[in-house]
Write a structure and sequence with these properties.
Length: 269
């Protein structure tokens, strides 16, 4: 499963709070003149990019609040200010994807990459979208580009997404390599720890799978998938008591999960 928290925007978008502030001290006359001069010197393109940035921030905030119509209006306005502002294309692509309009999502994810072809975040985002569309080989090209960006803050995320995409295509050896590379970049990448445990289990290496799942759990993480995997690992290792402990935890922590319901149905058979 590709987790969205790993692939949304690479930049943090902030909104200014509207509330009363104490009156600032007088500004020296020279400073006022300097500010006026800077404003005069700003180009039309600079002002367009600033308008695009502000409306993109507003659009993302509306989207996060579930106000999709308002978000679309702001993001459309952002692109009217400047079609060259890559984050606006990324955010509107995410919105289109949430609305089930994959055709328009693809256009804007690709446009963001075309505008910033060497940047990690847009390449990672487009790679994830392509992978979800069943285009694993094409997605790998963009994951590779993301990792090559020396200024990308989270190359381990792109590597984890690449491995997960390979895993979906049953390319277990390649997936394992990607997950190990991700952990070499960031040993605390919990998704990579879980996915490496998963792929090792699929490769019939339950002992090493257990070790990586234990590292995942040691970080305080838990999920229905991880608990079900723990059950399967212990069962394969012949540890029936350990397997049942995972089932108990699954039913207690996630009683309404698909995994818990599946184990209940099996127990009734």
């Amino acid at each position: 499963m590709l987790r969205k928290c790993s692939w949304l925007l690479g930049a943090t978008l902030l909104l200014a709070a509207c509330h009363s502030q104490p009156k600032p001290p007088p500004v020296p006359k020279d400073a006022l003149n300097a500010d006026h001069l800077n404003l005069k010197q700003s180009t039309k393109e600079d002002r367009a990019l600033e308008g695009a940035r502000i409306h993109t921030e507003l659009g993302q905030q509306y989207m996060q609040n579930g106000q999709f119509q308002d978000a679309m209006e702001k993001l459309t306005k952002a692109l009217q200010f400047s079609d060259k502002y890559a984050p606006a294309h990324t955010v509107i692509a995410v919105l289109y994807e949430r609305l089930g309009d994959d055709a328009n999502a693809a256009i804007h994810y690709k446009r963001a990459v075309d505008l910033e072809p060497k940047k990690g975040a847009p390449n990672n985002n487009y790679g994830v979208f392509l992978c979800k569309s069943g285009k694993a080989a094409e997605a790998q090209v963009y994951f590779d580009r993301a990792v090559l960006d020396p200024y990308y803050d989270t190359p381990d995320v792109a590597l984890t997404n690449a491995g997960t995409c390979q895993l979906k295509s049953n390319q277990y050896d390649t997936a394992e390599i990607d997950f190990r590379k991700a952990l070499a970049r960031n040993a605390r990448n919990n998704e990579a720890l879980y996915q490496l445990a998963h792929v090792l289990y699929l490769k019939n290496d339950a002992f090493r799978a257990r070790a990586f799942l234990q590292r995942y759990e040691a970080s305080g993480q838990s999920s229905p998938d991880a608990l079900k995997l723990g059950h399967d690992i212990e069962l394969r290792l012949g540890n029936g008591e350990g397997a049942q402990d995972y089932i108990r935890r699954l039913r207690t922590q996630f009683p309404d999960s698909e995994q818990a319901r599946a184990t209940d149905a099996t127990a009734r058979q």
